[in-house]
Amino acid sequence: MPDNPYGFAPPDDRPIPYLHRIKTYYQTLGYGKPYEWAHYVDSPFTPLSKPVAASRVALITTAAPYREDAGDQGPWSAYNAKAKFYEVYSGDSAVDHDLRISHIGIDRKHTSQEDSNTWFPLPMLRRMAEEGVIGEVAPRFHGAPTNRSHRTTLEVDAAEIVARTKADQADVAILAAN
Fold first, then answer.
1. What is the 3-state secondary structure of the chain?
2. Which residue, of 17, 142, 146, 175, has the greatest Cβ tally within 10 A?
3. d(CA 135, CA 54)
4. What's the predicted TM-score (pTM) here?
5. Pick from 124, 125, 119: nearest CA to 101
6. pLDDT tens digits for range 65-102
């Protein structure tokens, strides 16, 4: 019998302690108490009303539009609070956009920031539509702010994104969080 009959990952392949990192980060910002991670015991499941190959797919991302006045935002740049955005934004899905991820606390040690399809897979979605994998890409993509306020995220940002996604008559949405 092989040493690893179940195909488990090697012992040194452990999850990155993201929750511990964000809690510590919040305390260093002076909030006094650790960040409370939002999670639910149950999550609703709604089956698709039609096959993905016939569905209009919306893209939601937490990536920020590049701003020349906001400092270094390129691959491997340090965290850059100047690049943050605080309101939902939308863009034309038919054209390419320059979105970056230096504004958010991603794991810069273990994550490549060079492949924009990991945080903004719009070109890949358009290709999937051309190949018939998905029905079509919704006319707009939407940017979700990462304000870290549960109230603002749920009551303001999520509500706005849902309204815009419905206005675009999307059947399904993909969230590319980073």
1. CCCCCCCCCCCCCCCCCHHHHHHHHHHHCCCCCCCCCCCCCCCCCCCCCCCHHHCEEEEEECCEECCHHHCCCCCCCCCCHHHCCCCCEEEECCCCCCEECCCCCCCCCCCCCCCHHHCCCHHHHHHHHHCCCCCEECCEEEECCCCCCHHHHHHHHHHHHHHHHHHCCCCEEEEECC
2. 142
3. 4
4. 0.80
5. 119
6. 988 898 888 777 777 788 888 999 999 999 999 988 87
Q: Is the pLDDT of residue 1 over 60?
A: no
How far is Cα 116 from Cα 99, in angstroms, rounded to an integer? Answer: 8
